[in-house]
Specification:
Layout lengths: L2 H6 L2 E6 L22 E9 L2 E11 L3 E2 L7 H7 L5 E3 L2 E9 L11 E2 L8 H11 L16 E13 L2 E3 L22 E6 L2 H5 L4 E9 L5 E9 L4 H9 L21 E8 L3
Parallel strand pairs: 3-8, 4-8
Antiparallel strand pairs: 1-10, 2-3, 5-9, 6-7, 6-8, 11-12, 11-13
Length: about 270
């Protein structure tokens, strides 16, 4: 396969021995925080297409309390990259672009609190909860060639202190994945193929071992890769293979699912 095709392909169909059915529960409906009247700046801009008028609207939203308590054990574990212990409360400010549909995508926001350092764990917690939070929205607009509008919203998030859980992934009974109702059947799963593996045209097979947590969320780790010299290229995406999966409290044999471990194979193929 040509290198250009490989560079352009960022995902690949991989057979995962499990149907992914349940996911993280959405938060209860929340009202969007109110917005201030916009601060407006208009200017004439010249680019390759000629001159046009740019209207920039800057809004400010009321502070938002981030409900980190809604995160699962697996999400907290991922946010801390396996670390445990307390994470201090943080206040984080962002300047967020609003697209023409009137929507904000949190991952596109720019960290705006220049007086403090970015708290990596707090920011990760925010991004995980943010996908389920109600953010401000503005009316959709249609851009005109000679009269364009850029809109931004200043968002401030209050992230409470949180305790990252202590997790030992080596304990618990090892069971067949067929005992887990959500994983009883095989299903194709579209995974993110690691970019470096695409660039180097690497294929292989991961084995992941997953543990069911007390809240029934699932944490996975890659325990082997063939060929082993390329294990590091696939470890991160392999660990994300099941996504934010939540499973049933009982295994098919009637035993408690909490603490049980199971294994899956992932075949990484570029074709």
């Amino acid at each position: 396969m040509g290198s250009k095709v490989l560079r352009d392909r960022v995902t690949s169909w991989v057979l995962v021995s499990g149907a992914l059915i349940a996911a993280a529960a959405p938060l209860a409906a929340q009202p969007a925080p109110p917005l201030s009247a916009p601060r407006v700046v208009e200017e004439i801009i010249t680019d390759e297409s000629g001159k046009f008028r740019l209207r920039t609207e800057e809004y400010t939203a009321a502070p938002i309390d981030v409900p980190v308590a809604a995160l699962s054990i697996a999400e907290l574990y991922a946010a801390g990259n396996g670390q445990s212990g307390p994470v201090a409360a943080a206040r984080m400010s962002y300047r967020c672009p609003v697209n023409d549909a009137g929507e904000i995508t949190l991952s596109f926001c720019m960290f705006a609190n220049r007086l403090s350092q970015t708290n990596t764990i707090a920011e990760t917690l925010l991004l995980k909860v943010g996908r389920r939070m109600t953010l401000p929205a503005l009316p959709a607009i249609t851009q005109r060639d000679k009269d364009r509008t850029a809109r931004y919203v200043a968002l401030e998030f209050n992230i409470p202190a949180v305790e990252l859980p202590v997790v030992d992934l080596s304990t618990g009974p090892l069971v067949e994945r067929t005992l887990i109702p959500e994983l009883a059947a095989s299903s194709p799963r579209r995974l993110n193929y690691p970019r470096r593996a695409i660039q180097n045209e690497v294929e292989g097979k991961s084995v992941i071992e997953c543990q069911i947590q007390q809240d029934l969320s699932v944490i996975c780790r890659q325990i082997s890769f063939d060929p082993p010299e390329h294990a590091a290229l696939f470890a991160r995406e392999a660990e994300r293979a099941l996504g934010p999966l939540m499973v049933s409290p009982q295994l098919a044999d009637g035993s408690d699912a909490r603490g049980a471990r199971f294994r899956l194979s992932l075949n990484w193929r570029l074709t």
